[in-house]
Amino acid sequence: MVKICCIGAGYVGGPTMAVIALKCPDIEVVVVDISSPRIAGWNSDRLPIYEPGLDDVVKQCRGRNLSFSTEVHRHVGDADIVFVSVNTPTKTCGLGAGKAADLTYWESAARMIADVSVSDKIVVEKSTVPVKTAEAIEKILAHNGRGFSYQILSNPEFLAEGTAIRDLLSPDRVLVGGRRDTAAGSAAVDLLAGVYARWVPQDRIITTNLWSAELSKLAANAFLAQRISSVNAVSALCEATGADIAEVAHSVGKDARIGSRFLSASVGFGGSCFQKDILNLVYICECYGLPEVASYWREVIRINDYQKSRFVNRVVSSMFNTVAGKKVAVLGFAFKKDTGDTRETPAIDVCKGLLGDKAVVSIYDPQVAGEQVARDLAMNKFDWDHPRHLQPLEQLSATDLEKQVAVAADAYEAAKDAHAVCILTEWDEFRGLDYRRMFQGMQKPAFVFDGRNVVEVAKLREIGFVVYSIGKPL
Ligand code: NAD
Ligand code: UGA
Q1: Of 142, 236, 323, 356, which cross-links 393 as Cys (Cβ 3.0–4.6 Å)?
Q2: Is the Ribosomal protein keyword given for this protein (predicted)?
Q3: Does residue 453 register a pLDDT over 80?
Q4: How much is the ipTM here?
């Protein structure tokens, strides 16, 4: 029986390995992590991440050919294929701070593989890494290994949170990069491609060289984020001219060369990857002496920051230039619907912007716990990780947080006595709310600032709300 071990039981490692275990009952899959609470979560009835469909898949395989463990060394040591799916955040200090990927976790995983191996291995880069990382890993393994042979493959993950299981079961493509010019490299590519071929049609499995695979992942995320910044840039022009972003995006997206998906204007993109991967791409371009290319991609982030600041400024300026002491309901804190993940969510910047203007914020999200909101708002952001157009906010003390921030049990409680409602995540339930009931409980004039275009503007205006919706005529 082939044994797969995945280092890192996070948003990628957990769901990806669960689906491999589901589709390959003859492969033993073990997911290991240094975080015991995370592993305990994976072994419990309440999984550590919220992802539609995940519970079912885990229930089917856990105890059969899927397990979660903190015994990292033992399972890595005798695995045939080791996936490395650890976090690769942006460096916060030293050379490349604010841009380069921090490969500390990656490097320590690679050194550990070399230390504990008791057999030859295929080592798979699942994490998103800078192009040429495989070369560094090969060096670490070659210089520290104990005579075992290692084949490095790049197999970047393209799943999106909220649709991870669907994406894994039916991916647009699976990418496997390796050293096809050597017999051992080629055999490793074929072995991994063969695992996916159990459920992914052959024409969706792409094999490339290592550097193309590594770079394709960064490029794909940059292209996706660039689409959002493009539509968000046009949304600002819509508001200035009376055009409607929904109509413009529909017309633009009808061109088959452009396509209709991923053209929803928003308060800005969030999530753990778009910003970090573009910053990483910018850094790589700078390192290779390509400043024009670097600045092209950097603009995608600038527009995203601009969009978040623009939203906050619109809220404050519409409410007579001050929100001090006014209650503002925030509906949605996760970075998108169907996830409880708040990493780099635009809600953090928007809330901090409102708090900086002394608003009292009442937050409701169906999947984000109050403690997570408090942690996110208390966290001091780095200079580079902050929209330049927003006033930098001093770190909030625990007392400020208690005075200015509340977490509500539902949308109606959040909106009770509020002057305004800001919709920051496109949860389906926000479309079906009883806005008339909400209006009755609010201060007047009652404002709605829709950062996700979920409400029907005309209907809300009929109720009496003053409505501002991204990219819609004012
Ligand atoms: P995550 O933070 O949810 O999970 C990473 C896990 O790795 C953590 O649980 C951490 O404890 C563990 N870890 C770190 N060092 C370790 C070590 N030495 N030994 C054992 N465990 C260790 O991160 P994630 O969201 O799953 O992302 C992982 C990688 O996948 C990143 O490079 C990310 O860019 C990429 N990615 C993420 C997504 C996504 O939707 N989140 C999608 C595609 C790719
Ligand atoms: C994204 C990519 O879609 C995945 O392919 C990739 O694997 C992943 O990043 C990664 O590398 O981490 P994810 O961040 O989970 O996935 O979610 P997306 O659906 O891409 O949404 C990202 C952000 O963009 C969210 O804040 C979302 O609300 C926003 N968005 C998305 C828009 O504002 N408009 C859109 O049209 C689409």
Answers
A1: 356
A2: no
A3: yes
A4: 0.99
